[in-house]
Amino acid sequence: SKTQLLIKKKILITAGPTYEAIDPVRFIGNHSSGKMGFDIALAAAENGAEVILVSGPSSLSISHPNVRLIRVQTAVEMFDACDSVFDSVDVLVGAAAVADYRPKHVADEKIKKDADSFVIELEKNPDILATLGNKKKEQFIVGFALETTNEIEHAKQKIVKKNLDLIVLNSLKDEGAGFGKPTNKVTFITKNFDIESMPLKTKEAVASDIVNKIIEHYA
Ligand code: C5P
To answer: Binding site membership: which residues?
Structure first.
């Protein structure tokens, strides 16, 4: 039923959370399920694209001949996996909820609960989208933004800072949207700051809208 309008296009997609180790059994993570990224991967593959899906820990799986799934744990691993293929791809979609910080030191042994208080020093993770966006050549780059205040303004700043072509803004204020939900309500903002607000849709339908934006770019 799908068109093959993305045939010969190579698409790199990040998905899911990252887990940043504290000690051998503990980590800092987040509630991302990976569903948005996996749905985009499937929609792109069904349109003939060759997809590399780099996912943090997720219970989801994907089975399509056009999709290569690379599973990673940390932001640094996700960055390395993306960086090593970036020059060869046409499109990058950053749908992962990457941890902004990681513990500066990872304990070799499980940390004991002896102390009454305990501080974990954090250091900044690489911004995958910003790093790759700022060295892009012809690539079409799509990012996500989840904001709670001044959403449009912050999303526009993100387009500039990360050198994106399109940003998909999720509002936390919208009922049914976001983490762990099957639906999303998004606003598309292009690099020219054209704004298009979409109604509440399933994540599959949002994925299909995003893939259609990629198709339109090449039309
Ligand atoms: O800066 P912020 O985290 O709000 O930007 C969100 C966008 O940037 C998402 O597309 C996310 O996948 C990407 N991102 C990234 N690497 C990071 C942080 C965010 O690729 N370290």
So the answer is: 100, 110, 126-129, 144, 158, 162
